[in-house]
Design goal:
Blueprint (H helix, E strand, L loop, with lengths): L1 H6 L4 E2 L6 H6 L3 E4 L3 E4 L6 H5 L10 H14 L4 E6 L1 H10 L7 H9 L1 H24 L4 E6 L7 H7 L1 H11 L6 E5 L6 H4 L6 E3 L6 H8 L4 E6 L8 H20 L5 E5 L9 H13 L5
């Protein structure tokens, strides 16, 4: 609720750590301060994949109750549900924790594709159930967040990730709510991410929105893409960048984008001045809307 009350943003997101559904399913992991999620027994073999538990709705009851409380409190302000994408979850499980190079993940993917697809099949089931639980609680949209997909080539993404992300979006599509697909450093993957089935594709700050619409293709909305570091640059620089992105968004819509959700290209950095956020939201709301 805090960003809605303090900054006047247009939607809230039910954000929790990306590995919450894995923990809820019964996988032995811990969030280590200064490190992130650490898995006690990394998944490296087909036997490890077969031993993975499935997620049951009742195991995420706290998330469901939290979503219901938020829906009631938010009123007309939409609530976005959230889940980590199968590839990012797989990387944590295979590596045993956060990784810069994802070498064990890519090694399994390339050397043992059968085990890889079996692993992502299990994680896709978990992700779908996690999102369905939030949808049942009344969220107004869902976002699939692929933190580590930017480590992949276009060919790798298409062969080893796309089929599973497609299944997530297809399985939650019957809820009739907008579906958002977001990744980090995924500028070179936007063309394939646009095929996964989402209604909205997130764009980080590295790719202009006018180029993003060409890669994603017409008929989908774009989300992004103010660099979070801009919020440290002072009011004049922030206004200049906000107006530039708004202009790009107008051009992207003219090129076929279904719309634009103004957002940061990634999360708010920890030392960001909250006043800068408030002023940025106010500025965005003051801009003329495209026809």
């Amino acid at each position: 609720m805090q960003p809605v009350r303090r900054h006047g943003v247009d939607a809230a997101i039910l954000f929790s750590d990306i590995v919450v559904p894995l923990k809820a399913a019964g996988i032995d992991l811990d969030i280590v301060p200064g490190v992130g999620p650490v898995v006690a027994n990394p998944v490296r073999t087909v036997a490890d994949v077969r031993a993975l538990p499935r997620l049951r709705r009742e195991e995420v009851g706290a998330i469901v109750e939290g979503a219901r409380l938020l829906v009631d409190e938010l009123g007309d302000t939409p609530l976005i549900g959230f889940a980590g994408a199968p590839f990012t979850l797989a990387s944590y499980l295979v590596e045993g924790g956060p990784s810069k190079n994802h070498e064990r993940t890519k090694a399994m993917m390339l050397a043992d594709p059968e085990t890889w697809h079996a692993l992502l099949g299990v994680l896709t089931d978990i992700t779908i159930e996690f999102l369905r639980a939030q949808l049942a609680a009344g969220v107004d949209a869902v976002q699939l967040f692929d933190s580590w997909a930017g480590a992949l080539s276009l060919a790798q993404y298409r062969e080893f990730v796309l089929p599973h992300s497609e299944r997530v979006f297809a399985e939650v599509g019957d809820a009739g709510v907008p579906r958002i697909h977001f990744g980090v450093g995924t500028g070179e993957l936007l063309s394939v991410m646009g095929e996964a089935g989402a209604d909205v594709v997130g764009v980080d700050w590295r790719v202009p929105l006018t180029e993003a619409v060409r890669r994603v293709g017409p008929g989908k909305a774009l989300q992004g893409n103010l660099d979070p570091a801009t919020l440290f640059a002072g009011p004049q620089a922030i206004e200049r960048e906000v107006r530039r992105i708004a202009h790009e968004a107008d051009e992207a819509i003219a090129l076929g984008a279904a719309g634009h959700i103004f957002n940061l290209g990634h999360g708010v950095l920890p030392d960001t001045d909250p006043g800068a956020l408030t002023a940025t939201v106010e500025l965005i709301h003051s801009l003329p809307q495209p026809l």
